[in-house]
Amino acid sequence: MHGSINWNGFQDFRYNNRFSKLLKITMSSKLFLLLQHIAFLSMILFQLEPRVADSNKIKIRCVDEEREALLTFRQSLVDEYGILSSWGREDGKRDCCKWRGVRCSNTTGHVKVLNLRTSDYEFARRKFLKEWLSHLSSLRHLDLSCVNLTKSSDWFQVVANLHYLKSLVLRSCALPPINPSFIWHFNLSTSIETLDLFDNNLPSSSVYPWFLNLSRNILHLNLASNSLQGPIPEAFQHMVSLRFLALSSNELEGGIPKFFGNMCSLNELYLLNNKLSGQLSEFIQNLSSGCTVNSLEGLCLYDNDITGPIPDLGGFSSLKELYLGENSLNGTINKSLNHLFKLETLSLDGNSFTGVISETFFSNMSNLQMLYLANNPLTMKLSHDWVPPFQLKWLSLASCKMGPNFPKWLRTQSQLILLDISNTGISGTVPDWFWDLSVELFFLNLSNNHIKGKLPDLSFLRSDDIVVDISSNHFTGQIPPLPSNSTFLNLSKNKFSGSITFLCSIIENTWNIFDLSSNLLSGELPDCWLNFNSLFILNLANNSFSGKIPDSMGFLHNIRTLSLNNNRLTRELPSSLKNCSQLRVLDLRNNALFGEIPIWIGGNLQNLIVLSLKSNNFHGNIPFQLCYLAFIQVLDLSLNNISGKIPKCFSNFSTMIQERSSDPIIGMANRIWVLPGYVYQYRYLDNILLTWKGSEHEYKSTLGFVKCLDLSSNKLCGPILEEIMDLDGLIALNLSRNNLTGPISPKIGQLKSLDFLDLSRNHFSGSIPSSLVKLCGLGVLDLSYNNLSGKIPLGTQLQSFNASVYAGNLELCGPPLPNQCPNEESTPCPGRDGDANTPEDEDDQFITLGFYVSLTLGFIVGFWGVCGTLMLNRSWRYGYFNFLTNMRDWLYIVGAVNAAKPQTKFRN
């Protein structure tokens, strides 16, 4: 589809998914995979030459040249399953029109369609393009989407020789850039009507010169998801027949050129996800300056840097799709949108629109199917008995004000498949009619409201890939049956109670994300996780689960995040967890687990980014195998009974050495594709609580930036390792409340990213390293209750902390401590109110009124005694200035002679 949602097609896609599941039951896995990929067709249509054949006299067979070309093509394939066994030169196989996957014209015998799955074959790509395509010179339609052409540097030359080509589709082919010099040596097809190069990362230098050679009759041009930069080029103005233009997901800048207003045939314009900037009124003015205003049906400016209010759009009478979301638009929403009678999609989400949306705004929008107003400070003021003129399929009003009552008008929307009314101020219970709205609903988000009551049976939802998020509400009671065909289930931060043994009755499911955290759930964890192999994220934290961690959790082979923290779990960690090799976050803090830290954590879970065993009963040494965790960013072993020394190999934590992280988020993002480059995205963010500045803080959206090593409150001994000082990216280092000894390494000044440093309550000795002054970003420091001595190094940073930071170190001195260092102390002396005077007081006695009078008189007498005499006595004045002149001349001569000596020396 070209930019619009085909709802029937969407349903067909889901039906095909269900049908493919039935195929799985009856076919072997390899054959099923083969047939499943064959469903993604790569169709090649050939031009029918003007040749007449009498079907009564001549039996049509395939053309010999084309048969040989196909056989040559077959030699370039690996036909592991014998799909092409019907292809050959032997008797009974010579007619290529009867070959599997080949269809011929009934009148000419030319090959008309080649239907083959491409993903399972190893193409000899150069041969395919240069030995094979060159024999098909009459080709009109060529689609090689998803065929990897990375090494086909001559793809452009081959394509340029197909002079009858009307449609060229090379989507996601990893095309090499075009050499601009090639373009001028090849006459491209003047008949080309469709050019689709979506998702090839082609630069502007490869694409723009091509435009000058393209046909003025081109109808469809898709250059989305490439590397186009700079302003939109003027070359587009020659494409006067263009109906569809997609330049989405590039790096285009500036605005929309004025010539776009003269594209009289342009129906759909997709410029989303670029860097376009300027006032929206200028964009609209350029589009409405000519005939485009009458033809335009789809305008997608989503996710740019466009500013200003919405101008009058009433002139765009044909507009069906308007995407202005994720910009910097403001003001009230223009009432002219009410005159867009054909509007089917309206996206204004992610801006700064204000004001009230009433029912009159929608009075003429009877065709509206998709409405996105989310993440704007808007108020929805709709009467209790309002009956909308539309039937919505997608509705997103997240973070708009709708409450406190549940919107009754939703009862009329029986075709909803996506509904997001999260964070809208709704309270009370959900009416019964709501759960009967549509069994086709596949996306439901009611999170961050004040909804109470019990949750009904949700297993009635029959769509595939269902998303349900009802987190952060006040739902109570036991958890009801859940849809087994969902991918995302978030029931966290409610008041659900009871056990979760119901999970063992679910034999088959498609769950990827399952979050029951922060409820009132209790009992033992069920031991039936074998049936949940598709889980990526499992969060059961902040409940009252007890007993051991079940062995069957080791069957979660795809698990990325396992959060069981803040429960009452006991016993040792089951060794079966070593099979969860994809784990990135393992959070088991605040339980009653015991035993030694298993060595398999480092040996088998080498993808870990976050490991928290905080506040348990682990004992023994830190196994050196933890040093294999090269990706670790948060390692928290605090509040246990761990003893021994810190392993020297902690310097192997390579991610902690890097000062920056590429992604602030650790979690998963799921996307529902709406248009090429435009998605409805929902994310799940991993989070963890870290002790910071005396209290616990949750890190969620910035967790990827946190690099923390916390070994505090254990029984570790020995010196602080210099190897730890190599972890330049550390933001927090907490070694407090141990039995560590020795001096603090001067290399601590290398940890320039540190914001938090706590070495308190150990047995560190010696002086505070002066290099600590270099840590300019240090926000928290605690060196208290050690055996440190000497002067606190001078520097704004260390003197800015409270004196309690250095408390309990009896031999420390200097600011901010009240006790001065010995070499800076002065001799104690009586106070100023005593009878005796200090030396300073005695000196001050000389500065009296008589002193100032004498000073003034002396200045007057001295100044006028000299200057006055020179002014009154001419001979003295002349003599004085002659003396100054002679002195100046003598100094000049001496300076010149001395400057000339080195030059004479070098000449000799």
Can you offer a commentary on this structure?
There is one protein chain. This protein has 908 residues and is α/β, with parallel strands linked by helices. Among the domains are: 1-38, no CATH class; 861-908. The chain is 17% helix and 23% strand. The protein contains 15 helices and 54 strands. The strands form six sheets. It has a 26-stranded mixed sheet, with no helix packed on it. Strand 4 (139-143), helix 5 (155-160) and strand 5 form a beta-alpha-beta unit. It is globular and about 105 Å long. The model is unreliable at 1-57, 117-124, 826-849 and 899-908 (pLDDT under 50). Keywords: Cell membrane, Glycoprotein, Leucine-rich repeat, Membrane, Receptor, Repeat, Signal, Transmembrane, Transmembrane helix. Belongs to the RLP family. Residues 64-105 form the Leucine-rich repeat-containing N-terminal plant-type domain.
